[in-house]
Amino acid sequence: RKIAEMEPAIIENRLAWARAALDVESFPFPMAAEALESVKEADRQRVDYQFGATMLALKRKDYPQAEIHLTEAAKLEPQNELVQLNLATIRLRSRDRKAVETAQTKLESLLSHPTYKLIALRSLAGFLLESKKLDQAQVFSTELQALPRAEFADKLLHLTILFESKNAELPAYL
């Protein structure tokens, strides 16, 4: 905060203040909100600002607001695949079936991108589990397990899918 006050024209300092506040604060994250609100309106038309605002919205579980910020980021940089990945992941929660289908298609298209494959697989497997499309969830989860960067949480996701589907592979996986 002090650095942001000492160098008020440097937006990166305000965004760093917001990120730091999100890491240490509790709900409703007042310092992070203050840091983001202190950014001049003209400086809000940047992807890094929109990501900061998205992170605050996600921490507050305000998914519609997160989608608004990611949509704005996508308008600012339509070719930015990280923005597209995050926007698609958020849109999986939409009540609009068409938006969900478009998001799923976008995530599936990112499976060929080595940088985003893991996150796309994780998002798809989790979404399909929540949607009770367990056969499809298992396909993505199995592929996720084969990646070297798969985490323990990914193994738990796979285990949950196997359990929910009453899959015969469950005992062997344990």
Please tell me about this protein's structure.
- With 174 residues, the chain is mainly alpha-helical.
- It is built from eleven helices and no strands.
- It has helices at 2-6, 11-24, 30-37, 47-59, 63-76, 81-91, 97-109, 117-130, 134-145, 152-164, 170-173.
- Helix 2 packs antiparallel against helix 3 (30-37) and helix 2 (11-24) packs parallel to helix 4.
- It is elongated.
- The mean pLDDT is 94.
Briefly, what is this?
It is built from 11 helices and no strands.
- Globally, the shape reads elongated
Structural class: mainly alpha
Q: Give the biggest beta sheet.
A: none
Could you give the order of the helices and strands? HHHHHHHHHHH
Uncertain stretches of 5 or more adjacent residues: none
Number of strand segments: 0
Proportion in helices: 55-70%
The number of distinct helices, counting runs of at least 4 residues, comes to: 11
Distance between the termini: 48 Å
Based on CA atoms alone, the radius of gyration comes out at: 19 Å
Mean pLDDT: 94
Percent in strands: under 5%
